[in-house]
Design the sequence.
């Protein structure tokens, strides 16, 4: 038992190359000021992908409505900034708390049924929130979105400028903090039991693991992480709209995990980087047909295999850690 705990703690520690990777990410807004906005977007969607990986990659819960927590956190943070106070950090906490509370309620719906049932229930929750946000136009702005969200300076000193540098560093900081926390979770005894539940829930239940409790806890935590990503988007863009709850938002983050790999925390980050860069480059060349080329890339990824297509990234983790969703 002690050896297993020591092994888990060893896996949770950062490797020598990892600080260099994150330092490069933080240097990007300063070295490439013209691309600070896309760095901010990548950090936000990477955090969103990280939240989905917690429930899909480590708990085996398939969710097609994960945008429900993303959008709920975004609207909560935006409304708090507009109606109460514009402090970004307080608004971030409000967005996370709102999404976590919603996740705790929704976790009750995923404890029964098959993967298909869970898939439809999670999708239904996102559609319900989408319709509520549309009908409550006096509060949310309806189809026009919640506009006029003005954020105060970060920590009372750093203004959100048009270049997006402050926003990028803010989002990257939140991403790193959640990444470290998520890493501790998945490489703890709690994370080991999650993997047991993912691999064989009946056997996990037979050896005394509280399967339902584990699923409810990780689903609630993942909802809070998704809410943080949504809050960051609303704060750094000054806008919240109905498309935050849309199906394509959940589908996009699922594609990021397909690209980067599930059950590996860097998979969400890598998938977000590749997806956003492809989106940015291809849409600038052919705005009407960029989805075709993204789809073609996914088909090639499935046929060729991630390890061969993204071979330079193999050194980032062991072959066991980088599990492909396309095997």
Sequence:
């Amino acid at each position: 038992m002690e050896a297993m705990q020591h092994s888990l703690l060893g896996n949770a520690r950062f490797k020598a190359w990892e600080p260099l990777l994150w330092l490069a990410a933080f240097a990007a807004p300063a070295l490439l000021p013209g691309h600070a906005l896309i760095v901010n977007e990548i950090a936000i969607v990477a955090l969103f992908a990280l939240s989905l990986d917690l429930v899909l990659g480590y708990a085996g819960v398939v969710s097609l409505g994960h945008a429900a927590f993303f959008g709920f956190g975004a609207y909560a943070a935006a409304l708090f900034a507009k109606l109460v106070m514009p402090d970004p950090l307080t608004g971030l906490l409000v967005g996370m708390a709102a999404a976590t509370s919603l996740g705790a309620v929704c976790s009750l719906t995923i404890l029964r049924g098959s993967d298909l049932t869970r898939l439809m229930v999670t999708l239904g929750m996102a559609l319900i929130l989408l319709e509520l946000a549309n009908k409550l136009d006096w509060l949310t702005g309806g189809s026009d979105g919640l506009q006029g969200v003005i954020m105060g300076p970060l920590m009372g000193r750093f203004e959100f400028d048009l270049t997006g540098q402050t926003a990028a560093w803010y989002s990257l900081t939140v991403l790193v903090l959640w990444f470290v926390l998520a890493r501790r979770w998945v490489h703890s005894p709690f994370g080991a039991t999650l993997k047991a539940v993912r691999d064989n829930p009946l056997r996990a239940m037979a050896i005394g693991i509280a399967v339902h409790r584990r699923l409810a806890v990780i689903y609630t935590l993942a909802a809070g992480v998704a809410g943080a990503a949504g809050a960051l988007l609303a704060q750094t863009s000054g806008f919240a709209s109905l498309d935050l709850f849309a199906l394509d938002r959940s589908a996009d983050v699922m594609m990021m995990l397909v690209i980067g790999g599930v059950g590996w925390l860097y998979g969400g980050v890598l998938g977000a980087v590749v997806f956003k860069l492809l989106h940015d480059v291809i849409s600038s060349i052919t705005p009407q047909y960029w989805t075709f080329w993204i789809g073609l890339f996914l088909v090639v990824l499935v046929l060729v295999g991630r390890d061969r297509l993204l071979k330079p990234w193999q050194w980032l983790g062991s072959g066991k850690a980088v599990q492909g969703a396309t095997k």
